[in-house]
Every structure is written in C-alpha cells, then in structure tokens.
C-alpha cells in the first residue's frame, strides 16, 4: 500500500510540472530543453503620436503546432515590457518569419530596447536583438 501512495505522489508531481501547465513566465525560469526561438533581426520606426512600429524576424527550431514561437516582446534593459506581439499559429512553412507591431508607446527616456522571443515550451529566451530607437523625425 505504501508503494501505491508513492507512485501516486510521483504522478501528481510529474503532472504538476508538465510544461503546458506553466505560464510562459514560469517556463522561462525552468526551460525544458533550451531550444528557444531566436530573434535574428529587428527594426523600429517612428509613428505619429510618439509611438513606434517594430518589424521583427524570428527563427524557431520547432516545426510542430505543439511547439512554436508564440510571441515576441519589446522591453527595456531593466525588464520593463512596452509591447507584445502574439503569434497565434505555428510558422512551420515559413522559417524564418517576420511580423510587425505598431503603436508601441515608449518613454522619451528610453533610447534602446531589446526584442525577445517566446515559445510554448520554454517561455522567454533565446537570441535577442538590441536596437537603438530612431530619433524624432
């Protein structure tokens, strides 16, 4: 009977730690296999009203709908997030792929941002790109 309890406990622990049960933020602290999507290129342009538009190119090592790059974000060096672009499906047929995000408000005091990708398994991480924001046009 003790053995049955131990097996149940182990199954509960495995279930509780399954990657799909964690939020992306939790996943990034305990990556499963360290294969994150890589941001390979990014650019920013000024928009009316003091906001920015971003074009970001990502390469994801996964070609399965169950494991794909599902978002990228614009953040400062201190970790403040200014914008997130959700990617709502896998991009297996187009690697690498480019997507944009517009109307991102960033304070005047920030002149450089980091673009970072996220996947469904490992969360945020992988190769990032740091870009200098363009000056006023």
Task: Describe the protein in words.
The model is unreliable at 1-32 (pLDDT under 50). Helices cover 15% and strands 42% of the residues. With 137 residues, the protein is α+β, with helices and mostly antiparallel strands. The radius of gyration is 18 Å and the shape is elongated. A 4-stranded antiparallel beta sheet has the order 4-3-6-7. Strands 1-2-5 form a 3-stranded antiparallel beta sheet, with no helix packed on it. It has helices at residues 2-16, 24-29; strands at residues 38-46, 51-59, 69-75, 81-86, 97-105, 112-119, 123-132. The protein has 2 helices and 7 strands. The N and C termini lie far apart (74 Å).
Pick out its properties.
alpha+beta, 2 helices, disordered N terminus
């Amino acid at each position: 009977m003790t053995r049955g309890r131990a097996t149940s406990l182990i199954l509960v622990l495995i279930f509780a730690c399954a990657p799909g049960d964690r939020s992306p933020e939790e996943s990034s602290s305990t990556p499963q296999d360290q294969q994150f999507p890589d941001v390979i290129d990014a650019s920013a342009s000024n928009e009316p009203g003091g906001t920015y538009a971003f074009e970001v190119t990502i390469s994801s090592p996964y070609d399965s709908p169950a494991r794909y790059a599902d978002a990228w974000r614009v953040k400062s060096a201190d970790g403040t997030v200014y914008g997130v672009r959700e990617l709502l499906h896998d991009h297996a047929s187009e690697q690498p792929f480019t997507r944009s995000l517009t109307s991102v408000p960033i304070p005047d005091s920030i002149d450089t941002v980091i673009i970072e990708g996220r996947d469904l398994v490992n969360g945020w991480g992988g190769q990032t790109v740091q870009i200098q924001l363009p000056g006023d046009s």
